[in-house]
# Entry
Amino acid sequence: MAEPRAEAPRLVSVPVVRDPRGALAVIDCAFTDFNIQRVYFLYDVDSNSARGSHAHRDLRQLIVAASGSFRVSLDDGSGNYSEFEMRDPQTALVVPPGHWRRIYDFSHGSVCLVLASEQYNEADYIRDYDEFLSWKRS
Ligand code: TYD
# Structure
């Protein structure tokens, strides 16, 4: 049986200000449960390509489909696996540390917006799945 999760990924609703001109979605540090240190976005991704395929030791992230759609699979290495279809800019995915992620099935023109709790640090990555499982067991 799968072990209980320390902290599970979850979907949260992004505050939106809508008026006749369109919609304005706001994400700030009061909304995230971390201080945003970095913002990056994936675009121009081929529908046959996958991004991710790694885990982070400490990094927390919020992922939003700013445009179009893609899928995110998350695996905590303890038998808990979840999959999310991201297609609504008003819905953000909270990705706690310690999850092997894969982002794939990008629609044409999609933009995957990522807000991160830390600056880029290669030492925080685990890029080998077996190493990820060993790290989770340790
Ligand atoms: P990576 O995080 O592996 O991207 P993905 O998981 O989407 O495939 O990063 C790809 C490359 O970009 C890698 O050489 C590191 C670099 N990179 C930065 O320099 N800064 C960043 O903030 C990020 C996210 C990546």
Q: What stands out?
A: Residues 14-137 form a domain with the Jelly Rolls fold (CATH 2.60.120.10). Residues 38, 40, 42, 51-52, 54, 120 surround thymidine-5'-diphosphate (CB under 6 Å). The CA atoms of residues 82 and 126 lie 19 Å apart. The radius of gyration is 15 Å.
